[in-house]
Amino acid sequence: MIQVKNLTYTYPDGTTALRNINMEIGRGERVAVIGPNGAGKSTLFLHLNGILRPSAGEIIIDGEKINYSKSELIRIRQKVGIVFQNPDDQLFSPTVRDDVAFGPMNLGLSEDEVEERVRESLERVGMSGYEERAPHHLSGGEKKRVAIAGILAMKPEIMVLDEPTTGLDPETADEIIEILLELSSEGITVIISSHDVEILSQFAERIFVLNSGELIAEGTAGEIFGEPEIIRKASLRLPRTAELMNRLRMAGFDVDVKLTVEEAYHELLHLLGAEAYHRLLHFLGEKRQHKLMHLLGDEKYHELLHVLRER
């Protein structure tokens, strides 16, 4: 869906922000671009719908090279929607309805079609009923949802979101990611940047790592988070579960890096083995066994004992 070939970009002041970047992203893929501040993530994103023009190299969207003519840019910006890190950079109309309707109206669509797109888009992001609200009176999470709705109203095939969960509380951030996962399941290619490693580990099918304007690594979430040195260069920390598994590997245990609590739980069950099962029962005694059952829940507790017994 996206091909970035030998992309280099130098700002007018002579600062080179990107150096010879090569990437390919498939249709419907969930991709994250990570790296420290100043790595070039935002600059890269602004190339994907023609806001910036490469100093060298080319961008190919759905098999067609961007040629930067006015008609081509209109077509590309229908296909590739960008949600900026700060939604206040994107929301400028007096009402939510006007903001979401802005893009479709500029496509020359009928009033009925524009209204239908506004209704559908706000419904998709859980903002129905906010049509007459002023965007600058909304919370950060609500503004982010409206910004996403404004892009959805253009019916894009690719969505690019720069730090979509920055400044949001954990519950709201999870809700935004759920929206993006749903869009991906419908075939929309979703590309994000983020410093939230817990979200990255659960969202991204593939991760590209930028540092000082260069692409230094790419791979699955498991591959990237299984290499602590790469994460250090990206100025991130490991997800808690990956950090635990990496420490166990460094201590000589034969474990795979896991990114979710559920996966790590089952890996630890596999690691403990039969000896630990008997030691656990001996150590706990009857009263502590009941306390452990209460802590884990009946199903998890018996699953733990079953797996240990089998080992």
Automatic annotation (TrEMBL):
Domain of life: Archaea
Gene Ontology MF, one: ATPase-coupled transmembrane transporter activity
Pfam families attached to this UniProt entry: ABC_tran
Any single GO CC term annotated in Swiss-Prot or TrEMBL for this entry: ATP-binding cassette (ABC) transporter complex
Domain called ABC transporter: residue spans: 2-237
Topology class, membrane: Peripheral membrane protein
SUPFAM superfamilies referenced in this protein's UniProt entry, alphabetically: P-loop containing nucleoside triphosphate hydrolases (SSF52540)
Locations listed in the record: Cell membrane
Keywords: ATP-binding, Cell membrane, Membrane, Nucleotide-binding, Translocase, Transport
GO terms for biological process, alphabetical: cobalt ion transport
Record InterPro entries: AAA+_ATPase (IPR003593), ABC_transporter-like_ATP-bd (IPR003439), ABC_transporter-like_CS (IPR017871), ABC_transpr_CbiO/EcfA_su (IPR015856), Co_trans_ATP-bd (IPR005876), ECF_ABC_transporter_ATP-bd (IPR050095), P-loop_NTPase (IPR027417)
Its biological purpose: Probably part of an ABC transporter complex. Responsible for energy coupling to the transport system. Part of an ABC transporter complex. Responsible for energy coupling to the transport system.
Name listed for the protein in its UniProt record: ABC transporter ATP-binding protein
Provenance organism: Methanothermobacter marburgensis (strain ATCC BAA-927 / DSM 2133 / JCM 14651 / NBRC 100331 / OCM 82 / Marburg) (Methanobacterium thermoautotrophicum)
Gene name in the database record: cbiO1
